[in-house]
Amino acid sequence: MILSIIFFAAVGIWNIVTFVLYGIDKQKAKANKRRISEKILFVSAFCMGGLGAFLGMMCFRHKTQHTSFKILIPLFLILNIIIAVLFLEITGVINIFGVFA
After folding, report:
1. Is pLDDT above 60 for 65?
2. Which pTM does this prediction carry?
3. Chain centre to alpha carbon of residue 83
4. pLDDT tens track for 9-28
5. For a tag site, which of 21, 25, 75, 98 has the least CB within 10 Å?
6. Dihedral sign, CA of 63, 66, 71, 75?
7. 63 close to 69: Cβ distance less than 8 angstroms
8. Exposed e or buried b per residue across 55-66, where buried means at least 16 C-beta atoms within 10 angstroms of its C-beta
9. Residue 101, pLDDT score
10. pLDDT tens for residues 72-101?
11. Which are the contacts of 54, defined by CB distance < 8 A and separation ≥ 6?
């Protein structure tokens, strides 16, 4: 149980960091300054920051016209959710697979 709390606290903090990255990049774009690379934005979303990236896109209206972001960020969010559910299953917090067995 404590492992699950630590995992979700880390994921929550990482999503806040990812959200802030999208906000910083949007401000840099407006100011015509050196930007955060798209690779960093994608990697931060892929590494369990999908929710922060998605919310950052919506709240800051940032990267919403880029096809790669419109496809990959929701995909990463779904993948992050699947990983979180599998983590809960593996640690014994939930038993979704036992329901179907």
Report:
1. yes
2. 0.89
3. 12
4. 999 999 999 999 999 999 99
5. 98
6. negative
7. yes
8. bbbeebebbeee
9. 47
10. 999 999 999 999 999 999 888 888 877 654
11. 45, 73, 74, 77
